[in-house]
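Worked example 3. Consider a protein that binds flavin-adenine dinucleotide.
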Amino acid sequence: MIIQENISLKKFNTFGIYAFAKQFSSFANVDELKELISYNNSLSNNQSPLILGGGSNILFTKNIDALVLKNEIKGIELITEDENYVYVKSGAGESWHGFVQYCLQRNFAGAENLSLIPGNVGASPMQNIGAYGVELKEIFYELEALNINEQKVYTFSVNDCAFGYRESVFKTTYKNKFIILSVTFRLHKKPVLNISYGAIKEELEKMNVPDLNIQAVSQAVINIRTSKLPDPAKIGNAGSFFKNPSVTKIIFDDLKIKFPNIIGYENNDGTVKLAAGWLIEQCGWKGFRKGDAGCNDKQALVLINFGNATGKEIYDLSEEILQSVKNKFGVQLEREVNVI
Ligand code: FAD
Ligand code: EPU
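Given these inputs, the predicted complex is written out as structure tokens:
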């Protein structure tokens, strides 16, 4: 067990924010993790450790006066299969896109629409990652997580996780109580392609692929993503900063009268999900920059650190955006990024 003191977290968060961890370590298996938790409990500061995956959905607004633990549990293995499915278990510290590529290489279908989402497998259930018409819950089978207080490993089924839009039990009831160790996925042997969302079909036509398959869908998703989302390796960001808010049908119809171009998609429960990027753009924020904090010029839902913005500057900008959307549309935005 090696504990480092006063470590810069800049390279551990895709926003590229300068923040320091009082203590920092990593773990490659559950025994190493238990040792670190015991150490943390002995500190008598009553602070839960902060678990880091790829740092692609986190905004540090201050130095972290706690033990920061980087999850490095590796390994992807085929557990079992039946007539229709394969069951693949991945260590929480594997990169998400690396896992998607593992599936693509073996023709295991279901993860292709989630190509190129940054971060690690262990964080994927935290907010039930989603993109291009697919959410993690559709390929999720179960996960193992360590209860921090009891130091005991529990298995969570899809129902236990209470997945919702960018939600799970790990962001609500069990916030800071469990550390995800591994995730097992159930993938199709015979692909069921999902190309109905957004520009996928159009992109596939442009690509002119002879055979429609999961590799082509993955490439189409990658092409669309790289055309509008900034690459965190080049410019600091954490993807969508806010969730897309839902309103009742009555409120939507009212908004549609006042703002005929408003973009909304009907949810299964009859409410309407609004495109937060459109709302933010209408408030004039797209391409905005103040110091090094700004709003992306292709996708207004993405806040940007142009270099040396502080987490507080990004947060303050998000607050101004949130207030302006509230004032113009009467709609309350909720942050998707985990603000620490
Ligand atoms: P981190 O940022 O390291 O952690 C996120 C949260 O989970 C933190 O609260 C952390 O404490 C906790 N956590 C992490 N690992 C564990 C663990 N093993 N056990 C317990 N808690 C843990 N998201 C989408 O859903 N769809 C997208 O299309 C999408 N596009 C993106 C595009 C860009 C350019 C970027 C930068 C981000 C995007 N995101 C998207 C957000 C992000 O990639 C996902 O939320 C991703 O799952 C975060 O993974 P991570 O390992 O980086 O998590
Ligand atoms: N739009 C605008 N102006 C903008 C941005 C978007 O008018 O500045 C419009 C677009 O033209 C489109 C609609 O809003 O009609 C939706 O935009 P887009 O397809 O880019 O998707 P999104 O709703 O903004 C969501 C997810 C993304 C995910 C994409 C693709 C959320 C909060 N975001 O974005 O996830 O990749 O759909 O499925 O649900 C993330 O979570 O970090 C993330 C990037």
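Take a moment to read the result before moving on. The mean pLDDT is 96. The two ends are 25 Å apart (CA to CA).
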